[in-house]
């Protein structure tokens, strides 16, 4: 595997970006440009750094404390083919993948067959936090999301049933 991915950065251990201790990988590049975005430095598609996926996998492999890995952004679905490869490797390690996306579940499902990597990435996600950040709905009390419109979706159950099933985190 010699595929590269453009990232803004990595947090080696976080308890704020999903359940348990998680590595957080920030995608570089986002078209949503949500007003009040927590990570505006991730919007440019030219910023960040290119890194080998295998280098990230090795970093994950070396940390026995991790419960899972979170993809944040930027927008991971802008590089879905690369993030799908990374998610598949993470699952092989016995860890789960959580993804923050400005796209809604409905949009991702509707367009998954038209955009390279979307189906593969969707199939490797355990939890999806969907929808754009809406500054007027910002709520600091919400767990693992920034605004009230965002949903925490159990992807395995949702894909199996064809209906949105909220995750119990």
UniProtKB/TrEMBL annotation:
Transmembrane segment boundaries: none
Region forming the signal peptide: none
Alphabetical list of Pfam families matching this protein: Fer4_12 (PF13353)
Any one GO molecular-function label of the UniProt entry: metal ion binding
Cofactor(s) listed: [4Fe-4S] cluster
Coiled-coil residue spans: none
Keywords: 4Fe-4S, Iron, Iron-sulfur, Metal-binding, Oxidoreductase, S-adenosyl-L-methionine
Reaction catalysed by this enzyme: glycyl-[protein] + reduced [flavodoxin] + S-adenosyl-L-methionine = glycin-2-yl radical-[protein] + semiquinone [flavodoxin] + 5'-deoxyadenosine + L-methionine + H(+)
EC number: 1.97.1.-
Matching InterPro entries: Aldolase_TIM, NrdG, Organic_radical-activating, Radical_activat_CS, rSAM, rSAM_sf
PANTHER family to which the protein is assigned, alphabetical: ANAEROBIC RIBONUCLEOSIDE-TRIPHOSPHATE REDUCTASE-ACTIVATING PROTEIN (PTHR30352:SF2), PYRUVATE FORMATE-LYASE-ACTIVATING ENZYME (PTHR30352)
Function: Activation of anaerobic ribonucleoside-triphosphate reductase under anaerobic conditions by generation of an organic free radical, using S-adenosylmethionine and reduced flavodoxin as cosubstrates to produce 5'-deoxy-adenosine.
Family: Belongs to the organic radical-activating enzymes family.
Annotated protein name in UniProt: Anaerobic ribonucleoside-triphosphate reductase-activating protein
Originating species: Ruminiclostridium papyrosolvens DSM 2782
């Amino acid at each position: 595997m010699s595929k590269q991915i453009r990232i803004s950065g990595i947090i080696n251990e976080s308890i704020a970006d999903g359940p348990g201790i998680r590595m957080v990988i920030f995608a570089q590049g986002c078209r949503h440009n949500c007003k009040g975005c927590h990570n505006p430095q991730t919007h440019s598609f030219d910023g960040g750094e290119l890194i080998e996926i295998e280098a990230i996998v090795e970093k994950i492999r070396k940390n026995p404390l991790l419960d899972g890995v979170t993809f944040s952004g930027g927008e991971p679905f802008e590089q879905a083919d690369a993030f799908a490869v990374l998610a598949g490797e993470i699952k092989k390690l016995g860890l789960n993948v959580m993804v923050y996306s400005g796209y809604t579940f409905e949009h991702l499902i509707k367009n998954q067959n038209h955009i390279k990597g979307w189906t593969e990435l969707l199939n490797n996600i355990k939890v999806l936090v969907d929808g754009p950040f809406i500054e007027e709905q910002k709520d600091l009390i919400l767990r693992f999301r920034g605004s009230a419109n965002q949903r925490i979706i159990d992807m395995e159950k949702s894909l199996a049933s064809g209906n949105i099933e909220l995750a119990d985190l």
